[in-house]
Specification:
six-stranded antiparallel β-sheet, 560 residues, alpha+beta
Length: 560
């Protein structure tokens, strides 16, 4: 086993214990942020923690060292911003009022990474270990020498030819389909999460809990403008599904082939006038443009429904079958050859004609040519322009009295929002509510609101108040007595989620093992208390998981 004192915490190379690493320049006197694990901390008595490399609303990624295998790894720690607290002993605690959000995400984080650990898909970065420790969950993955697709394009002229793209992307597309088949939507596919390995292969990174990829979720969201679908901004009205990953993949392909990032989905709802440079319309195969046109439809009901269909459309030219491309919305005049739009559609559809030169008229392009950007369209370093920023519904501000040029500035009033049904952690960290001061007045049992939700507020919704008005809130403890759910036959993850939804504390759910060959492996055989029993949500609940694996030992001799 290598002496970890000789390892650079920034790159995990053996630099002889130098203070300034001659390989990566990391200064060993540097410290990780206070919310992170410290450098040289050890988890699972095996993994040596190095520098924190990235942090988002779901958690923190560290470079690490596997002392058992003597290899570099990445260590992902579930640590949702605004819902987690780092204790002095480096364990993790939940923010009061945010227990359900924390625990729901923890279970999902664990489930996703365990599925990746078990999956054998060509473009996944393998997860090698998932374990619970310090009040949270860790996922350890292989360290693969990669750069982002965004960096790769910058170093390689900004675009690639379809002949280069096709063999690169097909394994990636198969991997995303495989994860969708497991019920896991990525939601963050972009040129930042598609990686190009030193071995020339593409890999997908950034699989995360669902709430990280929605703007209206309790977690601090992480979306990539131009690659995120409209339903991720409007999840209360529209739902994410496999077609969300279709949009992300198509946006990445478009960027790689055309060299520009698609306009942000929310902006396209307002103005979707799209074209494409003539040279790309001439060079790219018709079936590729058609597939991209269908996959980049703004509204999910108009979009390619799943990855398999998207892949089939991308390779239709090889089968000789025809593809009918859905035109993208636009505000140009219709071509005479364009088919009339369907009744009830609110979008104006166009087909853009392309020409080689003024002397040689090519005729009307038979496929939809779409998605073109204004001259000031941005790349990675300027991805949020004034035109594409997400609008925020700020509280209405009203002034008191009439204007008097000699008077001081009039007071401003802010309407009090409805707080009932929200979690306390959601409002205290929300910039939209920064003009109010919130104080927890009391906690009480409540049959209407789940545990941790606000059930009463001291100032009525809609009241106009001055800045920094104190609003006292009452937090629900959930129903005083609840009928415990039936979790028999569920696997451990879904059983825990069902109990969490009822308001039981994660730490009070005890998992035990029991062996029974007559029932499915890994499922709940018994629960205490029994389902239907009226109990207080603060009690301890025991679930007995079937330790039978499906294989029985046999003493039969094997002959060859």
């Amino acid at each position: 086993m290598l002496n970890t004192e000789r390892l650079c915490p920034g790159c995990m190379n053996d630099n002889g214990g130098e203070k300034i690493c001659p390989i990566c320049g990391y200064d060993s006197s540097r410290r990780n942020p206070e919310t992170c694990l410290p450098v040289r901390f050890t988890v699972a008595d095996r993994y040596f923690v190095g520098a924190a490399k990235a942090q988002n609303g779901e958690g923190i990624t560290y470079i690490g060292w596997d002392t058992k295998l003597d290899s570099v790894v990445n260590i992902r720690e579930y640590f949702p911003i605004n819902f987690a607290i780092r204790n002095p002993d480096k364990t993790v605690s939940m923010v009061k009022g945010g227990e359900y959000t924390f625990n729901e995400g923890l279970m999902e984080f664990m489930d996703i990474n365990r599925r990746i650990e078990e999956a054998e898909l060509p473009s996944l970065i393998p997860v090698t270990d998932v374990f619970e420790e310090n009040g949270t969950v860790y996922a350890v993955s292989q360290s693969v020498a990669c750069i982002t697709m965004s960096e790769f394009l910058k170093k390689n002229g900004g675009t690639l030819k379809w002949e280069q793209v096709r063999p690169l992307f097909l394994p990636l597309i198969d991997t995303v389909k495989g994860m969708n088949d497991l019920g896991i939507i990525h939601g963050g596919i972009s040129t930042e999460t598609v990686l190009v390995g030193r071995d020339g292969k593409l890999r997908i990174s950034g699989y995360s809990v669902k709430n990280l990829r929605l703007t209206d979720s309790p977690l601090e969201s992480e979306l990539y403008p131009g690659f995120a679908a409209v339903e991720q901004y409007e999840s209360e009205k529209l739902h994410t599904d496999a077609y969300t990953d279709v949009y992300g993949l198509a946006a990445v392909l478009f960027t790689v082939l055309i060299g520009t990032v698609p306009t942000e989905a929310t902006a396209r709802l307002q103005n979707d006038s799209m074209t494409i440079p003539a040279k790309f319309a001439e060079e790219l195969p018709r079936h590729v443009l058609s597939a991209l046109a269908n996959a980049l439809q703004v509204l999910p009901q108009n979009r390619t429904k799943n990855i398999e269909t998207f892949k089939n459309e991308l390779v239709y030219a090889e089968t000789g079958e025809t593809v009918s491309a859905k035109p993208l919305p636009g505000n140009r005049e219709k071509s005479k050859a364009e088919k009339p739009k369907k009744s009830g559609s609110t979008a104006k559809y166009v087909i853009i004609s392309s020409a080689c030169t003024a002397a040689v008229f090519l005729g009307i392009v038979a496929i939809l040519v779409f998605t073109v950007f204004k001259d000031d369209i941005f790349g990675k370093d300027n991805s949020l322009s004034d035109d594409s920023n997400i609008s925020v519904n700020a509280p209405v501000v009203e002034s008191i009295g009439t204007i008097d040029s000699g008077a001081e500035e009039t007071a401003k009033l802010y309407p009090v929002p409805q707080l009932a049904g929200k979690y306390y952690a959601e409002i205290v960290e929300n910039e939209e509510y920064e003009m109010f001061e919130f104080v927890i007045k009391d906690k009480e049992f409540n049959d209407k609101y789940s545990k941790g939700q606000i059930c009463a507020q001291s100032v009525a919704e809609g009241s106009n108040v001055v800045r920094d008005t104190k609003i006292e809130v009452t937090i629900s403890l959930g129903p005083k007595e609840i009928k415990i759910a039936n979790v028999l036959g569920l696997d451990e993850t879904n059983a825990k989620l069902e109990l969490l939804k009822q308001g039981f504390l994660y730490d009070n759910i005890e998992v035990l093992e029991k062996y029974d060959e007559d029932h499915n492996p890994g499922t709940v055989l018994e629960q205490e208390p029994k389902y239907g029993t009226k109990v207080n949500s603060d009690i301890s609940v025991k679930i007995y998981i079937n330790s039978y694996t499906g294989n029985t030992e046999s003493g039969t001799d094997i002959t060859y």
